[in-house]
Design a protein that fits this description.
This protein is of the alpha+beta class. Helices cover 25% and strands 34% of the residues. Strand 10 (249-254) and strand 11 form a beta hairpin.
Length: 331
């Protein structure tokens, strides 16, 4: 049986080609604790040493802030967490037709303004109309059917290609190149859903490769989907979408891997788009250039004998343009 308790390790290393000082940083790395998952433990360390202060932001994401005043040539940020992901519930409700959604739009705009209004990375574009019409023609005429079909269509028509875009690319770039990464596909899906009147929000987190949840003999049999999971889950953090379906609530959709969000997805932060939830953001004083490397490990929380680890870390208290390509690796 697949396990759903995971250990996360996320290491970000900034290297400078000269001395810098007065580094002020903001992190969104602690997994959320809600009805979908339990963050059993979390630890954050920095080198040089600092004492991060934690608070919840407007969207109830954990934010850690720290500063390092003395001169330094390297900054290492390391977070560790143990997360228990709860089983995804099944939804049995009467489907809501799209024409009924149109009648509820004024009510929805009052309640879900942040998730319906255009945002920096998810603008309203005339070029989306053709894609939206294709989704509507292919779906079953229900709100949920439209959302699911939109996620499937993005997965089918756009190629996962690291380097095709950068961290500040707009969905207009993605529509032209028909390629991008999970950040681009999530923004594209959000824009499609919002333009049709379906509230949608951006989610950052991690994807656990399916193979890591299986016994060794089963894990040896690979397919295209598991290969994609290993590329995403084994290298960096991930992004997907949550859509609000009338009479159902929020459901997760992952246009990058092409299936619904389940126990493989570990949620860290939610926002209108990437701009609300970057894993690491900061400034420093100095004329030195910098390089960035990111290392992510997501695996079942097991000890050497194969037993699950309940807790390995102590509980935590309740971009610059020249590194855009490396920043994108985190999303």
């Amino acid at each position: 049986m697949a396990l759903n308790r995971y250990k996360l390790a996320h290491v970000t290393l900034f290297s400078y080609d000269g001395p810098v000082s007065e580094s002020y940083n903001e992190l969104r790395l602690r997994p959320r604790h809600d009805e979908t998952q339990s963050c059993l433990s979390f630890r954050l360390t920095t080198t040089p040493y600092s004492k991060p202060a934690a608070h919840l932001d407007y969207f109830n994401n954990w934010v850690h802030q720290f500063h390092i005043l003395p001169e330094h040539r390297e900054l290492r940020v390391e977070s560790e967490a143990i997360v228990l992901v709860h089983p995804t519930p099944s939804y049995v409700t009467q489907p809501v037709p799209l024409h009924e959604l149109d009648q509820r739009l004024n009510e929805l705009r009052d309640e879900y303004y942040d998730w319906l209004a255009p945002s920096q990375y998810c603008p309203v574009l005339p070029a989306l109309r053709e894609l939206m019409n294709a989704v509507e023609a292919r779906c079953d005429g229900t709100v949920r059917g439209f959302a699911e079909t939109a996620a499937t269509l993005v997965n089918e028509q756009f190629k996962y290609k690291p380097g095709a875009t950068h961290v500040h690319s707009s969905i207009a770039d993605c529509l032209v190149t028909r390629a991008g990464v999970c950040q681009d596909f999530s923004h594209l899906l959000i824009a499609l859903l919002r333009q049709r009147g379906i509230p949608a929000r951006y989610v950052s987190g991690y994807l656990v490769p399916r193979q890591s949840r299986l016994p060794a003999d089963e894990a040896r049999s690979t397919d295209a989907r598991s290969t994609m999971e290993n590329v995403i889950g084994g290298q960096a953090s991930h992004a997907w979408v949550q859509a609000n379906i009338p009479d159902v609530g929020w459901i997760g959709l992952d246009p990058t891997v092409g299936y619904f969000v389940d126990e493989q997805h570990i949620l860290v932060a939610r926002g209108r788009d990437y701009g609300d939830v970057p894993p690491v953001r900061g400034v420093y004083k100095g004329h030195a250039g910098q390089s960035l490397s990111v290392d992510v490990l997501v695996r079942p929380a097991l000890d050497d004998e194969g037993a699950e680890l309940l807790q390995e870390t102590s509980a935590a208290p309740p971009p610059r343009p020249d590194i855009e390509e490396q920043q994108q690796q985190q999303q």
